[in-house]
Amino acid sequence: MPSFGDERDRGAFIEPTVVRGLAEDARCVKEEIFGPVCTWRRFDSEEQAVQMANETRYGSRLAVWTSNLQRAHGWRARWKWVITWVT
Question: Cα(77)–Cα(59) distance, rounded to whole angstroms?
Answer without folding.
Answer: 17
